[in-house]
Amino acid sequence: MKIAKLFLLLATFGLLGLSSIETKAQAPASIAGRAVILTVSSGTYPFASTGSYLFLASATGDGTFGLVALPGGDTSNNNYGTFTYAPNGATATVKFIYDYPSITSGFVTTLTFDPGSSSTGSYFLSNPSLPFPYSQSSQNGRFSAYVGQAPASVQGWTFQLQIDGGVTPFASSGTAQIVTTVSGYGYTVTGGAGVDSSQGTYTYATYPQFSTSSSSTTLNDSKLGPVYSQTLSWTNSVSGAYVIRNTSTGGFQAGTFVVPLPVINSAPTASGTYHSVFGGYTITASGSPSSFNATGLPSGLSINTATGLISGTPTQSGTFYVSLSAYNGTTGTASLTLTVAKAPATVSLSNLATTYNGLAKAPTTTTSPSGLNVAFTYNGSATAPSAPGSYTVVGTVSDPNYQGSTTGTLVISPVSTPQTFSQWENFYSTSGASTTPRNDGIPNLLKYLYDINPSVPMTAPERAALPTLDMTTTSGTTYLTLTYHQYASLTGVTINVQTSPDLQTWTTVNPPDLSQQVGTDSGDPIMEVGVKDTGATKQFIRLNVTQP
Question: Does some domain include residue 310?
Fold first, then answer.
């Protein structure tokens, strides 16, 4: 049974990877480096009555092959041997010779290719030379090409081997991991339970001339010594079947392989501080990755792709969502939330004591590092105060990469009321009786008279302090009057009431015909002055304000 099984495997093996379609059936010229799937249709000899098998021919051209049972196939006795192959138009004859010195005969398999195809067809297996009842047995079924894609290189990849049969070069069963180096041709084999570990060198070659699904590695194993030929048949880019053949002694092993997806198991979060050396974060993963990567890192940090170490000095702060990857032939990914805190900064306040002059007051700041913007609140308000009083000042650094704050007390002291126009000028940091610093048409001397702040735009109450024209009758006499707000501390100023019939000739009425206080506003008197109504069609009145 073992011998027959081996022969049939070889026969079907000749079809792997044939993807071209011809106008008529044509057996391929060679089956070296190929693999096919065999499906049993009838007959119980030499295989099971049903099931699929994958046949792998050695890529070294030494006539060896191996068998891997697919789901439903018999895995109890995978075998090996040598074969001869003779194509003849649409058919091909495969003769199998076993690697048993006592057995010199073999099976004959006839392959018949489907019309228009060189990769599918039917087979018939028999061996009349064997003793009864084996000589009376036969088997037939279908074969088809094993389709997959061999990568251009396996350098740096990790393979997980599931051994289905054979005793060389590893254990008779179990799992082994072949890790090839990132550079060069070195490899190591890490065995699981019952599997030896070893190391050596390899070469790798694909066989596109036959099929994109097959490749081979030649292993020079330091533990067992002889050179092994390993044929890989790829189901997809990360898994398939393999056979290892000892080209010196004929030893054989077969099974399946997978390139395990690395699972990143390093922490999902990390933290650092702006402009400080990052403490370091290393990507770790299962599956023996050969390289790592990280995208989305803040500026100043970089990754060592060989070790997975992220290091450097971040030059921006914030929360960064970093994509991690680990590669061993397949790529495993994970996310890292990297938080870079703002660096600490110090804030110092000065000029916290000042004197009221009607202007908004703010302290002076010094920061370390220097030049940082600072935002202030005064008793919780962002508006700087101008009125006398004490205010709790909080200065907070406003910067994308630094943080810090301080608290102080801003004191605006009241001042003695200025008396003379010169004192008033100094108090408001202005000069010139006829100057109009706000360009509003009201010169400084009149603003002094009406108690108006010259350093800021006039408010509505201040505009109401300007003179208003009216007609007033008192004790039967009618007056043309001006009513205005007069600074209570006014001194050193002469106020004359003048009248004119034509705005050309002005006459001073001193004392005025009418002069009286009609109210107060914020401690300032509200004055009303006037001249008698002459009864003329036109009569004008004005205030003439001068300094002595």
Answer: yes
